[in-house]
Amino acid sequence: MRKGEVTRQAILDHAMRSASTKGLDGLSIGVLATDLGMSKSGLFAHFSSKEALKVAVIERAAVLFYEAVMLPSLRAERGLPRIRAIVSHWIGWAERMGLPGGCFFMAAAVELDDQPGAPRDALVRSQADWRDALSKAVEIAVSSGDFEAHVDPSQFAHDLWAIVLGYYYASRLMLDERARERALHAFDALVERASKS
Amino acid sequence: MRKGEVTRQAILDHAMRSASTKGLDGLSIGVLATDLGMSKSGLFAHFSSKEALKVAVIERAAVLFYEAVMLPSLRAERGLPRIRAIVSHWIGWAERMGLPGGCFFMAAAVELDDQPGAPRDALVRSQADWRDALSKAVEIAVSSGDFEAHVDPSQFAHDLWAIVLGYYYASRLMLDERARERALHAFDALVERASKS
DNA sequence: GCCGCGACCGAACGATCGTGCTAATCCCCG
DNA sequence: CGGGGATTAGCACGATCGTTCGGTCGCGGC
User: Which nucleotide is closest to the Cα of B28 by its C1'?
Assistant: First the structure.
């Protein structure tokens, strides 16, 4: 890997951590540069606009998310066990990755949902990929017999997503120590409702 | 009402709309002033710092939220009917109030969850009030017999919150037209699980 | 009728922002 | 080991930010 690529990765990793707290728009090229011990223009040269930097950060975050949540869950058995693995990796993945500002995607989603442009498109693309992967996992659980046949994979994925959003909200803003416990409780209820009885 | 008070309200109402899209930090005193046809310093004089403006906007939003969601629901019968009323007013309250950027509190929560200070404190206070009001409504539903005795009001309130968060996420970022339908489906499941069978 | 005060304005400040341009330096390949 | 593209630095620009200050206008009470 060339030197420039190494630097670029270092920039993106740091920018991702920074954006998790200040937001993508709160990223400052100058601050980023001094944090990494380089010049503003030197950093800027790697991307040719701030918008391109945002896009690169989002795509980098998507890769890291996939590696931290989806990849390890693929080692679990197909069906319900894999879904349990996904949830257990999903909840708290931000803390585990050392993101000081909580879930990167939740912050980006709220910030970009009403701002058309390349960053929003990149975010939607990555989130759609994840949504499809989730639905697929649920579909497998249905066809393997873990879940009843009437379970709608996309609805299940939506409900799962809401549970995770609720976890981050309660955990980070309201400082609810029982947030994780509450989220898992909701997940159990969701699973019980979908499972054959 | 004094002239200054009228102006102040106009500022806060406009700032709230603006903050729903650009975020609280994205508020610009200069832009706000020109939008309202007044000078930067004239607007600034009403609050003596941007932080104070943020706090005032949050408190104003809390009042408007209460009036738009809680007050009309109090006319519904105690117990489950009132909870149904709350949910139907809660989902989509931002659109109904003409907030162009979706739920003000969801945006503020993600933005302020890791930024200590007066704005965060004001937000947490308002959200805790709402959480308590929600729990109380559920408690009434339990004691009135609409819900089973084992239902935990705070868990129910948490689950409700997650459903609304999921709705805004799917609706605004992913542009899922079935977001409302999905949220109501999840709500029905939540109610069914809590109701006497 | 004059005084006082609330309400607002205009101009300016230092700081920081993203973004060019040019030159120096480094690293990799032949 | 030497040449050349890749990488980084230095400097400056226009714009915008929150904030300060001094001043003006109008209205209500003694």
Answer: D17
Examine the pLDDT at A3 and tell me if it is beyond 90. Answer: no
Tokens of residue A145, six digits: 């017999």
d(CA A101, CA A20): 4
Per-residue DSSP letters for B148-185? -TT--HHHHHHHHHHHHHHHHIIIIIS--TTHHHHHHH
Give CA–CA dist A159/A179, Å, rounded: 16
In angstroms, the CA B123 to CA B133 distance is 15
Return the SS3 of B195.
Answer: strand
CA separation for the pair B127, A112 (Å, rounded): 23
Q: Closest Cα partner for B12 from B34, B27, B1, B30?
A: B27
CB A61 within 8 A of CB A123: no
Cβ atoms of A58 and A108 within 8 Å: the answer is: yes
Mind telling me how many Å the CA of A162 is from chain B's nearest CA? 4
Three-state DSSP class for A147? strand
Average pLDDT over residues B24-33: 98
pLDDT in tens, A66-102: 999 999 999 999 999 999 999 999 999 999 999 999 9
- The torsion angles phi and psi of A147, rounded to 5 degrees, stand at -110, 155
Q: Which residue is nearest to nucleotide D16 (CA to C1')?
A: B30
Those nucleotides of strand D lying less than 7 Å from any protein Cβ are 6-12, 16-22
CA atoms within 13 A on the CB side of A152: 7
What is the Rg, in whole angstroms, of the alpha carbon atoms belonging to chain B?
19
Query: Whole-prediction pTM value?
Result: 0.95
- Alpha-carbon span A124 to A109, nearest angstrom: 8
Residue B147: strand pairing partners: B195
- What is the tally of helices (H) and strands (E) in chain B? 11, 0
User: Tokens 């610009």 belong to which residue?
Assistant: B28
Determine the 3-state secondary structure of A142 from DSSP.
helix
Asked if A169 is an interface residue toward chain B (Cβ–Cβ < 8 A), one would say: yes
Q: Nearest-CA neighbor of A110 among B56, B165, B121, B98? A: B165
Q: Going by C-beta distance under 8 Å and a sequence separation of 6 or more, which residues neighbour residue B162?
A: A162, A163, A165, A166, A167, A169, A183, A186
Question: Alpha-carbon distance B60 to B160, whole Å?
Answer: 24
Question: CA–C1' distance A34–C24 (Å)?
Answer: 20
